[in-house]
Write a structure and sequence with these properties.
Strand content: 15-25%
Strand order of the largest sheet: 9-8-7-6-10-11-12
Structural class: alpha/beta
Number of strands: 12
Radius of gyration: 21 Å
Bound molecules: nicotinamide-adenine-dinucleotide
Number of helices: 16
Order of helices and strands: HHHHEEEHEHEHHEHEEHEHEEHEHHHH
Helix content: 40-55%
Length: 432
């Protein structure tokens, strides 16, 4: 019976290119498949398939030259069944409500996979930070926060940084919220500067989590880090940190891919030197003892681990058959489309799905929230030790679930997460 169900779902998963690249469509396909396999009851399926709350705001902001501009912002709270909604805010010119919806639902599943007491949310503001001054960004952030004041809070919905937002953005949100509440409320956001209640280890947490699950995946192949060739796409927060920590753990990072091209050295790149080179020249290209490669070609290098850590929709039905990695460790959110999943599965590529692989960030955000509420801060060793324990246990849970139910790791992660969230809803009951 499962084979039939799976066929049906996969049939539907052969979409037009537009559909394939729509993240909400990808989220729905993965949700439907996991719900079907779990035999989730129809009512729960209806509750969990759609976000609980979607807020759209149009925020007037005065630009530096005196003009008034109106920016559109979103905040989607997918679920609060297991705790306050949790998820980042991104600033980008092409943010859409569908993208924010998908990211919010992924946060629900991610928090459930690593079993931390949060639901899922995401926010976005349609703006181009590259043409905005710091003052303009601050005014957008503060007005967006003010519009959301009744919807966010330490017990309600806790934002964090995402694409083009950072510790400074979080400090502005914390301050705006605190001014409205007439007291300093550090736990309203995570990813804050350390001096304002941020956590030790938060900046490295997502990359560190990727490294921890990559180490676990390697054991499945009987490989040691020093005999492992890694290709990393994206040299930002996640990819850069993962590269640095993995290189330190002995992995051979043979290629790093960025927007303007890739650098390749089959014997392994010197990552701290590559970081210094980029800081000096503004690009990773033309790095000593490395060959420049076009970025598309680099994605298809023969390697043991491919770690996409840049953006969504990198591996699609059009190129999944060209991936030559043994392990795909998804640092980015949604780097693989639903249609590509099938191809990777047929090719027996071991996928550590995004909702597990990049969950280190939200896990340390949870630690930050706990520390803020306690007013008592942990040292880095304690943060990293607790992160490792959660990532290792979650990897083990997902892989065991996959083996038990005869499904791939992504479906297993979704099933595990759905099961946990559905159980919480059943226990709480439906308030009427
Ligand atoms: P970032 O902006 O710090 O880094 C992304 C990097 O990717 C940049 O250096 C950018 O130049 C590069 N890039 C963009 N397009 C590229 C392309 N086509 N080819 C190669 N490189 C390209 O962002 P980040 O915080 O590292 O996030 C990366 C991904 O990880 C996103 O999908 C994000 O949602 C996800 N993620 C981030 C965190 C976190 O804690 N930062 C947590 C979970 C998931």
């Amino acid at each position: 019976m499962w084979a039939e169900v799976s066929e049906m779902i996969l049939e539907e998963a052969t979409p037009s290119t537009d559909q394939e690249l729509n993240p909400w469509h990808a989220a729905e396909i993965r949700f439907d498949e996991a719900a079907e396999r779990l035999g989730l009851d129809d009512g729960l399926r209806k509750i969990l398939r759609s976000p609980a709350t979607e807020i759209t705001v149009h925020i007037p902001v005065q630009l530096d030259d005196g003009r008034l501009e109106v920016f559109t912002g979103y905040r989607v709270q997918h679920s609060i069944a297991r705790g306050p909604a949790k998820g980042g805010i991104r600033f980008a010119p092409d943010v859409t409500l569908d993208e924010v919806r998908a990211l919010a639902s992924w946060m629900t599943w991610k928090c459930a996979v690593v079993n931390i007491p949060f639901g899922g949310a995401k926010g976005g503001v349609v703006c181009d930070p590259s043409v905005l001054s710091q003052g303009e960004l601050e005014r957008i952030t503060r007005r967006y926060t003010a519009e959301l004041i009744d919807f966010i809070g330490p017990e309600r919905d806790v934002p964090a940084p995402d694409m083009n937002t950072n510790e400074q953005t979080m400090a502005w949100i914390m301050d705006t919220y605190s001014m409205h509440k007439r007291s300093t409320v550090t736990a309203v956001v995570t990813g804050k500067p350390f001096q304002l209640g941020g956590s030790r280890g938060r900046r490295e947490a997502t990359g560190r989590g990727c490294m921890i699950v990559a180490l676990q995946a390697l054991r499945k192949f009987g490989l040691e880090p020093n005999e492992t060739r890694v290709v990393i796409q994206g040299f930002g927060n996640v990819g850069g940190m993962a590269a640095k920590l993995m290189a330190r753990a002995g992995f051979k990072i043979v290629c790093v891919i960025e927007v303007d091209g890739a650098v390749y050295n089959p014997h392994g790149l010197d990552i701290p030197a590559l970081m210094a080179h980029r800081a000096e020249t503004g690009s990773i290209l033309d790095f000593k003892e490395a060959e420049n490669l076009p970025r598309e070609e680099a994605l298809y290098l023969d390697c043991d681990i491919l770690l996409p850590a840049a953006k969504e929709n990198v591996i699609t039905s059009h190129n999944a058959d060209r991936i030559r990695a043994k392990i795909l460790c998804e640092g980015a959110n949604g780097p693989t489309t639903a249609a590509a999943d099938r191809i990777l599965e047929e090719r027996k590529i071991f996928v550590v799905p995004d909702i597990l692989a990049n969950a280190g960030g939200v896990t340390v955000s949870y630690f930050e929230w706990v520390q803020d509420r306690e007013g008592f801060f942990w040292n880095e060793q304690l943060v990293n030790g607790r992160l490792e324990e959660i990532m290792v246990n979650s990897f083990r849970d997902v892989v065991a679930y996959a083996e038990k139910h005869g499904v791939n790791n992504r479906t297993a992660a979704y099933m595990l997460a759905l099961d946990r969230v559905a159980f919480a809803i059943k226990l709480r009951g439906i308030y009427a």
